[in-house]
């Protein structure tokens, strides 16, 4: 029964993603207002606080608030640093870690609503026959530091400086003001308020303008580039800080065929080229979202596995690989096109 | 001096995220005769700790509060400054506070909600628990990142002794001078439309710069009910802000999204030279074959 419903790990993940998208965006319709308080305010996924009914799940929201309102303030006053600033921060990170412990970076690959929206757009791009732009190792190396820069500057430093009074108060939540998930999730509820740029101050306007342009870029780029925003997402950076401290992980064994195969590398939506070359701990890269595609498309038995406390939850296998590639190429191109664009044109021309 | 100013703003915004706005934009002018329960502020506008609540337009005999999990905090200690509201250990989030004046002929209740920024459960139990005879219950109370705003409709439940009041009238008065009246439906629920009565040149009250909106003003909802030869008057006062789009521009927003989209359009074009970057439709995994 389960096997017929979820013939592949990819199908199972897709169903989980859609379920979580509905829960994080429309959850209040099911469980009423204050949904965020029921789930958490420290979720390791980009779910937006600006949705009037759900929201405030995302860990980056309270993290910016802590930097802005507690730590920066406590540092200026020089008192109550421990009780007023450090303890609340530790408690918040502990809440975050309770979630993270079980799923690790699967929050990026399975839960995050913006990740799901980008994947849906990429699937649409395949059906519209748009090109796929994979990043070469050199280009990937240039992009990877951006997420750390955004995390340190927009999530930690600027809110802290705003709390200390050094930076303008509008810099209290700069990441939220540019986060594409804020627009994506609120627009999915037919709410255009976040789409409208704030005009109170030049800083608000500039951040809003950048955020909106970034959102527009991501929406179109996702048709031809896999997970364009995930590559620079500061939550990816934060999750990477904790990924070694979770029993859920990607494990890859050394195998002689890996050097010349490289299918896993093509299947990886984050263009982690190391997955084909490395093994052991180095194969579980900081950009890995635990989507499991590399394990699905590895044609050798047990070489790539997703393990929880050492127990394999999924492992690569030749028979599974054969079934998988019949449905979809490693790059995500479906073998059976839903919208057969070219053949229809050709047949019309011929006719 | 600049550092001190921003530190003050941060302190204010951190400690009173969604509390009612005492005298927002209107000094001490009496804008309503209905009972009010407001946070008391010192002359230099620094927030007190713990918050001090003062009742207006009623002779409060007692002050009570309920934590977000529904736990009662009866008989708040009253000092010269007002009634002290302290969060229970480990229970933050919203608190419901009331001031009550009671005579054989009349019961007058002023009520409001106060937000402590430390974590706590959702205020569902706090709202549904019966706290007085005649009650105005927000359905729901705006979340931390939300607020009552002009041109928005919000629902309130009217109850007497825990039972919904059908066809009960409720009056709205705002510190900006608006007045309106609404009537509850068969479920005792009344939908209140907040008026767009903010003027562009209204002065910004100091300390209000970071209150999830540029400006805010007080409002009060009040209802009266007679039963068993006694008159009951209950009011709920809180803050509301200008229309959501008053400081936003949808045209600019849409324009910048379009700009971003245009910048990404070259990625959608197919190049004639097929390289590795065009391998999306190609046969993959040669090494695996």
Q: Would you report the number of β strands of chain B?
A: 17
Oligomer: heterodimer
Helix proportion of chain B = 10-25%
Order of helices and strands of chain A: HHHHHHHHHHHEHHEHHHHEEHH
* Number of discrete helical segments of chain A: 19
According to DSSP, the number of beta strands of chain A is: 4
- What characterizes the major β-sheet of chain B? 9 strands, mixed
Largest sheet of chain A: 3 strands, antiparallel
Spatial extent as radius of gyration of chain A: 21 Å
Percent strand of chain B: 25-35%
Percent helix range of chain A: 55-70%
N-end to C-end Cα span of chain A: 45 Å
Largest interface here, residues on each chain? Answer: A-B, 83 and 64 residues
Which structural category do the helix and sheet elements of chain B fall into? mainly beta
Give me the number of helical elements of chain B: 3
Quick recap of the structure?
The complex is a heterodimer of chains A (about 350) and B (about 290). By secondary structure, chain A is mainly alpha-helical.
Layout of secondary structure:
The complex is a heterodimer of chains A (351) and B (289).
Chain A: H1 2-5, H2 9-26, H3 28-31, H4 35-39, H5 60-77, H6 81-103, H7 106-111, H8 113-127, H9 137-164, H10 174-178, H11 180-187, E1 197-198, H12 202-221, H13 234-242, E2 248-252, H14 258-261, H15 263-267, H16 274-277, H17 293-296, E3 304-308, E4 311-315, H18 318-327, H19 341-350
Antiparallel strand pairs in A: 2-3, 3-4
Chain B: H1 2-15, E1 36-39, E2 52-56, E3 62-66, E4 72-73, E5 83-84, E6 93-102, E7 106-116, H2 124-128, E8 134-138, E9 148-149, E10 153-160, E11 163-164, E12 169-174, E13 179-183, E14 189-193, E15 217-227, E16 230-241, E17 248-249, H3 250-264
